[in-house]
Design goal:
The complex is a heterodimer. Chain A is mostly beta strands. Chain A contains no helices and 11 strands. In chain A, the strands form 2 sheets. In chain A, strands 2, 4, 5, 9, 10 and 11 form a 6-stranded mixed beta sheet that branches. In chain A, strands 1-3-8-7-6 form a 5-stranded antiparallel beta sheet, with no helix packed on it. In chain B, the strands form 2 sheets. In chain B, strands 2, 4, 5, 6, 9, 10 and 11 form a 7-stranded mixed beta sheet that branches. The termini of chain B are far apart. The chains are: A mainly beta, B mainly beta.
Chain lengths: ~110, ~110
């Protein structure tokens, strides 16, 4: 079992819709959770981080964490074509930092 | 502030040659990470350093790969001899700590071994 699992997609949503990206992790002791965006040919760029159960909002982005279910998600409201990228979920267990394989998102104009 | 700086951005070389990738972390960051990214395997952690000391090199694929961090502002990843299957994008990242702080990535080195 991988430490961090993501649906590889591709996920396609129309412009203006909500995109929902999901991630599960295996280590119950995981402490911090991150979402990175990676455009094709570019490096991963941090967009959100969350440490506590619940929701954290930053502009059009909302990260949701449920430690009991070992589940973290990223919602993108009012999706724009510029949001088209691969989204990487990352989890820090306190000793190690693990990345998922990423979900490819395409926003259709 | 300057981010993580990697060089070269692109490297094309022939099989069997030595390849050296370089990284300058963000000033004040104690942790430095080397990753390799391919379409097939995604982002793989190769090795990471804390205060210039290698902590976990279990991701280094084989003895042909070596990494050093002689001081807080410089690290190298060396492949000798290189093979076509080493072709990938290699990223360096740094973070202030390894607990709740995010990692910040350099632009990467796109390596092609012919």
């Amino acid at each position: 079992q991988k430490e961090v699992e993501q649906n590889s997609g591709p996920l396609s949503v129309p412009e203006g819709a909500i995109a929902s990206l999901n991630c599960t992790y295996s280590d119950r002791g995981s402490q911090s959770f991150f979402w990175y965006r990676q455009y094709s040919g570019k490096s991963p760029e941090l967009i959100m981080f969350i440490y506590s159960n619940g929701d954290k909002e930053d502009g059009r982005f909302t990260a949701q964490l449920n430690k009991a279910s070992q589940y973290v998600s990223l919602l993108i409201r009012d999706s724009q074509p510029s949001d088209s990228a691969t989204y990487l979920c990352a989890v820090n267990t306190g000793n190690q930092f693990y990345f998922g394989t990423g979900t490819s998102l395409t926003v259709i104009p | 502030d300057a981010g993580v700086i990697q060089s070269p951005r692109h490297e094309v070389t022939e099989m069997g040659q030595e390849v050296t990738l370089r990284c300058k972390p963000i000033s004040g960051h104690d942790y430095l990470f080397w990753y390799r990214q391919t379409m097939m395997r995604g982002l793989e952690l190769l090795i990471y350093f804390n205060n210039n000391v290698p902590i976990d090199d279990s991701g280094m694929p084989e003895d042909r790969f070596s990494a050093k961090m002689p001081n807080a502002s410089f690290s190298t990843l060396k492949i000798q001899p290189s093979e076509p299957r080493d072709s990938a994008v290699y990223f360096c990242a740094s973070s202030p700590t390894n607990s709740n702080q995010p990692q910040h990535f350099g632009d990467g080195t796109r390596l092609s071994i012919l």
